[in-house]
Amino acid sequence: xxxxxxxxxxxxxxxxxxxxxxxxxxxxxxxxxxxxxxxxxxxxxxxxxxxxxxxxxxxxxxxxxxxxxxxxxxxxxxxxxxxxxxxxxxxxxxxxxxxxxxxxxxxxxxxxxxxxxxxxxxxxxxxxxxxxxxxxxxxxxxxxxxxxxxxxxxxxxxxxxxxxxxxxxxxxxxxxxxxxxxxxxxxxxxxxxxxxxxxxxxxxxxxxxxxxxxxxxxxxxxxxxxxxxxxxxxxxxxxxxxxxxxxxxxxxxxxxxxxxxxxxxxxxxxxxxxxxxxxxxxxxxxxxxxxxxxxxxxxxxxxxxxxxxxxxxxxxxxxxxxxxxxxxxxxx
Length: 332
Known about the structure:
Number of strands: 22
Mean pLDDT: 82
Order of helices and strands: HHHHHEEEEEEEEEEEEEEEEEEEEEE
Low-confidence stretches: 1-5, 17-32, 36-64, 77-93
Number of helices: 5
Shape: globular
Strand order of the largest sheet: 1-20-17-22-15-13-14
């Protein structure tokens, strides 16, 4: 009832305010709408919350939950740091646990300008069994069309890692950074107290493909930070090499979490062992290309496998392969 009263007052304001109409009519024309269509869209679809900020040019920062709070609530983390959902260690079970996400079971959204596959629940894709792996909340496999991109939008208290797989993206943020990330780079943004940014494919003749990875932070409300590096000088063949770590003096970019990311490019028949760096952590393997066996489990391109309650895993390439390992805490 209160919601309907609010809509009525807002619509009365829209259609009877002489200051507002000159700004509102061009907005309707731009959206190819008349007043009847606007009323129908507003009353039936309940989109006032989405439309009004654009028309009124008002700040909606307080009305929108923070990135951190919204996603924490979705996965079930509580203020005490406990968790009621899956993919967390059972202290009563000492044997290794695993979860496998085949490529074809991922969520999918094709927006035309953006084609995205979601390993975990994201936007309109919701699967209560696929909310996260420990503090790893988002793993999106994105393709951005020529001349398109993500407009300026806010984040707070989230560690956001981007790994370009093909092409390049122009990055701009409220910290004053304007850079280009390309294949062979890794980028991290610690959103902390709050940051806005955009990512655009400025190329007119080729797509951009990249991984978008979100990790819950170890410390909240830090000063926002940004970094990116080229992997050209540190990449290795037939073994894993580190690209993300919690130590700023260590190899790779620094993350505000007890997390380590490694990449590995393997020829058929080659293998490497990965040892968990911190007790209580798990590791999520994402197969970028080719086929591998992880502890005798066969995985193919874009498959994912989470492993916890173990000290190490073994990865063997059954075909030429490229693999991303993400070691993360399994609880907050």
